[in-house]
Amino acid sequence: MSWRTRGAPARKGADVRYRLPRRCHAAWLSLLLITLTGALAQTAEPAKPAPPPADAAKPAVDAEGRPLVSNVFFETDMRQALSDVAAQTKTVIVPDDSVQGAVSVELKDAPLETALELICLRGGYVYEKIAKDTYLVTAPDPKSPNFHRIAKTQVIELNYAKAEEIKSQLPESMVQYVRSAEPDTRLVVTAPGVLLPNIEAAIKALDTPQTQVLIEALVVETRSGTGLDFSWSAQSKHLGLDIGTGLATYVDAAATVLYRVMALVENNQGEIKATPRVITQQGRKASVRVALQQYFSLVSGRLGFEYVTLQAIESGTGLVITPQIALADRMVTCQIEPEVGDVTGTGADNLPIITKRTASTTVRVRDGEVIAIGGLLQSIEREIRRKVPILGDIPILGDLFRSRRDVKEQREVTIFVVPHILDADGRFTGQLLSDTLRAGGALVPEAASTKAQVQPPTAMPKK
Q: How far is the C-alpha of 333 from the C-alpha of 251, rounded, in Å?
């Protein structure tokens, strides 16, 4: 190729040479560089991927591998707070429709479950792990549709108390999760897992052995007018007199009254009706009853088809005692409810008329002290018939040889009560009332059978 200079005329017969412009040189150089760059790119190692964003980093964990939460919430919507915790710990937290309200809490390297507990604390919500890295947050309401997902059931066997008694003493917030089952010594608890240990601990704390008391009673019946009166001047330390019922209760002077009554018994002016002993627990009722059963004929049925049945009517003296014990000073507070009932006559259709007199008093005494209860009057009506044999059976003339007399007698019932606090082995300090009277020469019958007796009590010498 020939080059020539721009603007110079070509000569005939000479070689003509052309010179490229400078812009063409630049184009050729650019093309060469692009070709070399492509060749180098094919032989070079592949480029490393870009680093992941900060959100894709692994969450902080403690030594046990549990996710840690660090965040500050101030009046933050609870659902939003749970969402932030889920994002930070890479877990799934599902609040149901019952979760509402705001939360204010500062979390610093708190384990995930601790963070959930603190967030749920304000609204009273609970959480439960329902799958791997998946939590459900809901209200602890048994009526909630998700309650079955968070609830666990446990059966607790009671050792000392009855199921209904324990249930009645639980806080209202726990009662909704507890129900009694047969037998009456079993409780079934269905509650969220986080609440179950607290409910079980409360039940175990209430199911403890109660202190027991031996209630010793002496029932004495004397005839009215024998000189046994409760002189207020002589008994200056009596606790009180119920004007409506005539019930008099003594503590400090009870021993004096006791020996006066026993003197009447020795002179055949009184009679010891019973010396029962009852063992009961603190706060439980103990009952003592000395009763007489009388049978009455009742005619029933329609005209022409009558039939006679025997109906048993019970009358006598009863006593209900409920003790409360203070072990610190060995004092016993006794709520005493005496009752006297008797048949005072017959009414229409020969039905018996029963009269009952009841009273109630509360007395606080020391362990082993005597309580005397007097003023319990009982009316007795008797019909005494006498006749001369054979002659008394003669019609009309037989009235001359037989007689009938109605006797009305009023008796006074005096009750002496002595509470003895029993220790864990069933022993008590002091001496039984009946043993004291026998030592003094009184004729005291053997004790009657007792209710709720656990084992024979034994006296423990005082220190």
A: 12
